[in-house]
Every structure is written in C-alpha cells, then in structure tokens.
Amino acid sequence: MTGRFRAGGTVAVVGFAHSEVRRHFDRPLGSVTVDIARAAIADAGLTPADIDGFVAAALFPTAGAHAVQDGVSTVTAGWLAQRIGSEPRYVAGFQGIGQMPGSVAMAVNAIAAGAVDYVVLHRALHNPSGGYHDDPVTAISGAQQWTAPQGYSGPLSMIGLPYNEYLQRYRADPAAMANVVVEARRNGAELPWSYWYQRPITTAEYLAAPMISDPVRRLDCDIPVDGVAAFVLTSAERARDLPHHPVYVAGYASSATNPPRLQSHWPLDDIMDGGAATARRLWEATGLSPADVDLPQLYDGFSPFVYFWLESLGLCPVGEAHRFVQDGGIDSTTGLPVLSGGGALGTGRMHGIPQLLECYLQLSGRAGSRQREHATVGLACQSSPHYGGAVLYTSEPL
Asked: How confident is the model at residue 4 (pLDDT cuts 50, 70, 90)?
C-alpha cells in the first residue's frame, strides 16, 4: 500500500437530506433536487455560499430507450451547481458502475487533495412514464444480435442467469429468498420517506408474486421511483465545528474490469471472483476486516445480490448465504443487519442511497427510534460485487 492514498477518516459526512420516494413526482426532478441539496446544506449548518464542490452520478438506469434530459430525467453535478447560489471550484460527475461508491471516492479525493472545502454529493432517480425498460427497437446489431432476439437482454436476464447457477450449484431452495425480501420490506416499512412505508409483506405474498425471469420473481426486483438524496462532505478538521456528529470515510474499493463476455452475460464465477477481489481491496485500503463491521448494508437492487455480497465480503462462507438467511442471519434485531435501512427492495430504486444513508444515520446517532446501540463501523455496497463497489464508514477516525 506504499504511496497509495488511504482515507482513514480524513473526510467526513456532516449532513444530509432525503426526499419522499414516489412512483412519480408532481414536479420536475431538478426542482426537487435543488430543494433537497439546499436542505442538506442547511442540515450541515452551512449556507450555499460555503459550498465549493459538487459531485454526482447521473446514470439513468433503464435498459429502455427513454430520453435522458438534464434536470428532468437526470440531474448532473453541473446542472445543480448552476442553481444553488455558490461559486464552485470543483464540479465532477462519476460515469462508471457503482454510482454511490464512485461518487464518494471522487468527493473524498477532492477534499483530501485540498481542491475543495465542502462538497454536496447527490443522486437523483427518475421513473419515466410507461414501462421502465420499454424499448421500441425492431432491429438489433452488434453483440446483442446474438442475445436480444432470443429474449436475453436487460438486467432481469443479467441477474436471472447467475441466480439460477447459484441455486443449482448449491442446491438452494428459491423459496429461501423470501427471507431477504420480507426483511427488506419490514425495515423499509418503518421509514417515512420510503415508497413502501407501512407496507411490509409476508412470505406467502412473496411466493405468490409472478415470475418475471425465472427464477426472479417480481418482488425480487426493486421498484422504479422518483427520489433524491444529498449529502455534505468536508474534512475531518472542519467537521468538528459543525452541528452533527461526523461520520468518517474509512476507505473504499471499486470493482476492476471483468472478462469479456456477451453483453449482459454475468456468469456466477465472474461475480464471485470479481467480488472477492473487490472485498480484498476494501480490507487492504482500510486495515479493517469483516469482523470489524457491525453495520453492513448490502446492495439489493435484485435480491440475489444479497447472497453474492454476503459471500464475497466474507460475512458467511461461499455457498452458504441461502442457509444463512434462513437461520435468522440477517434479522435486523437478532442477526447481521444487512438490510436495516430497507435497502432498494424496502425503499425503492435509489441506487445505493439507502445503504449510505443508513450508515450515516446510525453512525452519527441520528436514526431516532431505530437507533442501534454500539454501531461504529458501517459498510455501504452498490451494484454487483464484480461490477460496483463499497465504502466503509466509521463513527470515529481510524
């Protein structure tokens, strides 16, 4: 690790704001984002004039052919920076996979380098009218000509194939996934901003849900929504003078490049090998280990991701996640609270925001009636272990 930057608590999250999560807002996404960013700035005890950095990930995550319009279907860092009333010195957008970990890394690096003092980091998600993955294309060329005409395209097929591999390889019962989805919805039902607020589900309801891409059921998928969240980051030194207990960025890791495959082809071995490498970089970057993490927030845009992250991170043995979740392993009251913040399945398709938010709320002592005792190390993941990333947060500097 000689010569490599280690965050180690040099940068902290000091404030946040989160919109209500809805299927569709009654006003433009950009308008909501401006309000949420200003609320996050005020929550941090700052004014817009204090903010000199903006970071965002503006990926519009639909496999369909919907128009991408800044301020309407997405909100870039540049669009927001023009409308807050500050004079930024640093404006950047993360373009890779793993939207939130990548954005956090950019903000941390800019602050640590002295390029900026206070950064607003936001993510704005839009649910377009019509089918989320509607695609009017009638002719296919390139690599997809070998898959799309046969019905193999888009994220459902992408996750259905390795999930099926997992079930067969480890002789797992697909009904066990009910434990993941029911747990996410139970926790999400407690959050006033969640789309699923006060709407938990039962195992029977999960099993009755229609199959979408066998073995993926409808309730294995997060629901497309409109929603916005913003966070303020600054140096640990400046954070001491602000009103809330800082939450420190201990380190982060992003996935590396993967073996070339047909588009949307994610073999299980690629996921697990790539995930193990991501986890190894994370532990090396922080000096921490799985045993140190008491608040792991695993990504669940599709429920099988929870299995893959549990095993990649070393939170349970490889091939055992399906048993781990059945034995109360992820019960937020008695087990490992991997979905205590509701995740994507329990709040809506907010692309890594629920994981970051839960780490911030719990480690800063701002979770209210949900506050967990002795939460000191949080982990927020996003996307698949081989195609995303993870950030470690601590309640005190390392």
From this structure: low
Span 36-54, mean pLDDT?
98
SS (H, E, C) the chain: CCCCCCCCCCEEEEEEEECCCECCCCCCHHHHHHHHHHHHHHHCCCCHHHCCEEEEECCCCCCCCCCCCECCCECCHHHHHCCCCCCCCEEEEECCCCHHHHHHHHHHHHHHCCCCCEEEEEEEECCCCCCCCCCCCCCCCHHHHHCHHHCCCHHHHHHHHHHHHHHHHCCCCHHHHHHHHHHHHHHHCCCCCCCCCCCCCCHHHHHHCCEEECCEEHHHECCCCEEEEEEEEEEHHHHCCCCCCCEEEEEEEECCCCCCCCCCCCCHHHHHHHHHHHHHHHHHHHCCCHHHCCEEECCCCECHHHHHHHHHCCCCCCCCHHHHHHCCCCCCCCCCCCCCCCHHHHHCCCCCHHHHHHHHHHHCCCCHHHCCCCCCEEEEEECCCCCCEEEEEECCCC
Domains within the chain, CATH numbers bracketed: 11-129+223-394 (3.40.47.10)
Task: State pTM to two decimals.
Answer: 0.95
